[in-house]
Amino acid sequence: MKIYTKTGDKGTTALFGGTRVPKHHLRIESYGTVDELNSYIGLIRDQNIDEKSIESLIRIQNELFTLGAMLATPPEKEVLKSGKQRLNIPKINHQSVTLLEEEIDHMNQELPPMTNFILPGGHQVVSFCHLARCVCRRAERISTALNENEAINADILTYLNRLSDYLFVLARKLSKDLSAKEIPWIPEKEK
Q: What pLDDT sits at residue 190?
């Protein structure tokens, strides 16, 4: 398989189904940001963390590839002329979101209650989680903008919203696992 095709040399790219759009199109921005998020999650996974978290992150990375493929498919191209789905893969759905919620709840049970916002940092891997969380929020913002112009599967928006929560709680869990201090946000007037 050849890596370069030269078809994008003039600033356009093809979506699933063949439609060509500018590389700055919101659909490209949305799945490109999901791809960036996936890379940050790989960075977290490559750290010295527990096996259960690694397994969850691998599942999430696979789900993000699926989510990206869903975003790369315009609604009018989802169904082939034969009536079959263009993407013959399991889609992100309510069950994907529920699994994230269950993992969040499980991790949260082991953590002290939050009484303040927490400043990102404390350990390199915790900081990586916060970077991924921020990229996830950006992917969500871009996807909601895309959804205003072209309807996308609502489960995509819910999944991205819940994934950012998961990444925040994972940062807290890893802070605890690594004995990293959580520093609360204290507004200037309270100091």
A: 58
Per the listing, tokens 């959804």 go with 147
Sign of CA dihedral 175, 160, 27, 74: positive
**Which tens digit of pLDDT belongs to each residue from 97-128?**
999 999 999 999 999 998 889 999 999 999 99
Please provide the distance, in angstroms rounded to a whole number, between the alpha carbons at the two ends of the chain. Answer: 60
d(C-alpha 124, C-alpha 101), whole Å: 25
The answer to whether the predicted template modeling score (pTM) of the entire model surpasses 0.70 is yes
Separation between Cα atoms, residue 191 and residue 176, nearest integer Å: 26
Q: Residue 22 is inside which H or E element, if any?
A: strand 20-22
- Residue 57 DSSP SS3: helix
Closest of 9, 29, 12 to residue 146, by C-alpha: 29
- 185, with CB counted inside 10 A (0-12, 13-18, 19+), is exposed
Q: Nearest Cα to 128, choosing from 60, 184, 48, 52?
A: 48
In the chain, the percentage of residues whose pLDDT exceeds 70 is 91
pLDDT in the model for residue 191: 55
Stretch 135-151: mean pLDDT: 96
Phi, psi of 184 (to 5 degrees): -75, 150
**Cα of 122 vs its chain's centroid, Å:** 22
Count of Cβ atoms closer than 10 Å to residue 65 Cβ: 14
